[in-house]
């Protein structure tokens, strides 16, 4: 993964992943972890046609804060930003906060 990051010629690179442990520490300035209330998550996954097992796995990960905790452990509080992702208003607020962080 390091070689992929070192070949990027931009100051800003956005990576979408569920596995922050694969990201190189030295190449990451900020990790944004989107969290969702479990009732909202359940409805989303069910609407997408996910199997009961997949819904259960995702719900357990959200309840146990797996991605958030992995990010905090790997990158620390100063590089981890938790954002709610429950409503379209959250989406708008998150975009605004990210653009502000990037200085755009």
TrEMBL record:
<keyword id="KW-0067">ATP-binding</keyword>
<dbReference type="InterPro" id="IPR020618">
    <property type="entry name" value="Adenyl_kinase_AK6"/>
</dbReference>
<dbReference type="GO" id="GO:0016887">
    <property type="term" value="F:ATP hydrolysis activity"/>
</dbReference>
<dbReference type="InterPro" id="IPR027417">
    <property type="entry name" value="P-loop_NTPase"/>
</dbReference>
<dbReference type="GO" id="GO:0005524">
    <property type="term" value="F:ATP binding"/>
</dbReference>
<keyword id="KW-0547">Nucleotide-binding</keyword>
<dbReference type="GO" id="GO:0006364">
    <property type="term" value="P:rRNA processing"/>
</dbReference>
<keyword id="KW-0690">Ribosome biogenesis</keyword>
<protein>
    <submittedName>
        <fullName>Adenylate kinase isoenzyme</fullName>
    </submittedName>
</protein>
<dbReference type="Pfam" id="PF13238">
    <property type="entry name" value="AAA_18"/>
</dbReference>
<keyword id="KW-0418">Kinase</keyword>
<dbReference type="GO" id="GO:0004017">
    <property type="term" value="F:AMP kinase activity"/>
</dbReference>
<keyword id="KW-0808">Transferase</keyword>
<keyword id="KW-0698">rRNA processing</keyword>
């Amino acid at each position: 993964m390091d070689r992929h990051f070192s070949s990027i010629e931009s100051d800003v690179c956005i990576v979408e992943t569920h596995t922050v442990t694969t990201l190189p520490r030295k190449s990451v300035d900020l990790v944004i972890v989107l969290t969702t209330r479990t009732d909202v998550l359940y409805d989303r996954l069910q609407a997408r046609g996910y199997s009961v097992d997949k819904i259960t796995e995702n719900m357990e990960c959200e309840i146990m804060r797996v991605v958030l905790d992995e990010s905090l452990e790997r990158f620390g509080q100063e590089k981890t930003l938790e954002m709610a992702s429950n409503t379209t208003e959250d989406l708008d607020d998150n975009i605004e906060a990210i653009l502000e962080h990037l200085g755009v």
